Amino acid sequence: MTDGSFTLLPDTGEPGFGVYIHWPFCAAKCPYCDFNSHVRHQPVDQARFVQAFLTEMKTMRALSGPKTVTSVFMGGGTPSLMDPSTVGAILDGIASTWHVPDGIEITMEANPSSVEATRFHGYRAAGVNRVSMGVQALNDPDLRFLGRLHDVADALKAIRLAREIFPRMSFDLIYARPNQTVEAWERELKEAISYAVDHLSLYQLTIEEGTAFYGLHKAGKLIVPDEEQAATLYEATQEITAREGMPAYEVSNHARPGAESRHNLTYWRYGDYAGIGPGAHGRLTKGRTKIATAAQKHPETWLSAVEQDGHGIVEREDLDNEAQADELLMMGLRLREGVDLARWQQLSGRDPDPDKEQFLLEQGFIERLGNSRLRCTPAGMLILNAVVADLAC
Predict the structure, then answer these.
(1) Residue 116 has pLDDT above 80, yes or no
(2) What Cα–Cα distance (Å) separates residue 219 from each residue in 145, 213, 214, 222, 299?
């Protein structure tokens, strides 16, 4: 239980250690979503899943050793379908497995359609101090197109509740939707900023294999903006959010200074995190090796595996220094703060290729921050994968 007060621990700039909990269930599958989410038409046995989460935590603790948790994130799926008592039991389990100081960020994802004031108060009492909501659009036709179960009125109600109950709040929007003009997106984004407290996640619509949209797109029945139009929308997004005091600190994430997502910074700064639950991924350091873990995706199969073996891990890989250096570069260049060059050099055992770096510098795709950091420019962010590929070789 907590009281209403909350003071966030300061960001030290260190990667930290996060705990990610994956709740895999949704009320409906969105046509653009390729996340590990599943619809069940019978009530989920939450007590049984809680016990499995607690059991898998013990396996992760054996891999991680003693750690101080700097953030917790409950993602999905739709974690706001969990009972508040389920959330409380999971958070209590984390606190009994690792050291959890007061004042760390504890985030839960929520959908506006599954929000009630009593549940929000229950999540807050359980220890959640930041909510991240999947709003996705601020007009009803596009919400229907995206397969969302809420309308704009539901979204605004959920945003108001979140602002009243939680110390910190973020919500997501998807842009580069079919027939979306820059002018329409500017209006929608400015409206979103007027509702936001301190953080927005703004994602371009991508067509992912295995989704309903993929089949429609392949058949020519779903046309999304081309690369040039998508780039124009991206550039408008950067300009508007910066002007309104919520600049990008990562490719798709925007925050007022000091309100960046601590948990996601752990990923992008290439810290360690324990991934618990169906389909969850983790990175845990043992000596000079980083262990990459991935769990069974199917919820009930994961559940049976945990009950039998103590975990649902189906993939485990020991990443050598070269693989770690590549991941550090791939993650860190997403950030406005860039990559710690000394850390990359220590892992890779080399300096960046001078010819490739010089070329990217001359093209205006990267820049040095003194001698200690390297980052993408706004132009480089538009071709991030190509920049990473060049520097990693």
Answers:
(1) no
(2) 17, 10, 9, 8, 31
Does residue 200 belong to any structural domain of this protein?
Answer: yes
At residue 4, the pLDDT reads 53
Residue 43 has pLDDT above 60, yes or no: yes
Three-class DSSP category at 93: helix
Between the alpha carbon of residue 206 and those of residues 50, 177, 226, the distances in Å are 33, 9, 11
**Is there a contact between 134 and 110 (Cβ–Cβ < 8 Å)?**
yes
Containing structural domain, residue 167: 17-267
Q: What span, in angstroms and rounded, lies between the C-alpha atoms of 321 and 249?
A: 27
Mean pLDDT, the chain, as a whole number?
94
Query: Contact at 8 Å (CB) between 130 and 166?
Result: yes
CA distance 135 to 157: 11
Find out whether 67 and 31 touch, Cβ atoms under 8 Å: no
Query: Is residue 6 domain-resident?
Result: no
pLDDT of residue 1 exceeding 50, the answer is no
Q: What is the pLDDT of residue 213?
A: 94
User: In the chain, how many domains are there?
Assistant: 2
Q: Which two tokens stand for residue 136?
A: 């996705």
- Segment 41-56 shows an average pLDDT of 97
What number of CA atoms fall less than 13 Å from residue 283's CA on the CB side? 21
- CATH classification of the domain holding 370: 1.10.10
Question: Which residue(s) pair with 285 in the sheet?
Answer: 290
Looking at the domain assignment, is residue 369 inside a domain? yes
* Residues 116 and 252 occupy one common structural domain: yes
Compute the average pLDDT of residues 259-284. Answer: 97
Residue in the structure block whose two tokens are 């371009």: 204
Among residues 267, 300, 330, which one ends one of the domains?
Answer: 267
Residue 364 lies in a domain: yes
Measured CA to CA, the distance from residue 83 to residue 239 in angstroms comes to: 40
Same-domain status, 115 and 250:
yes
Q: What is the pLDDT of residue 6?
A: 86
In CATH, what number is assigned to the domain containing residue 221?
3.20.20.70
* Tens-digit pLDDT profile for residues 232-256: 999 999 999 999 999 999 999 999 9
Mean pLDDT of 124-134: 96
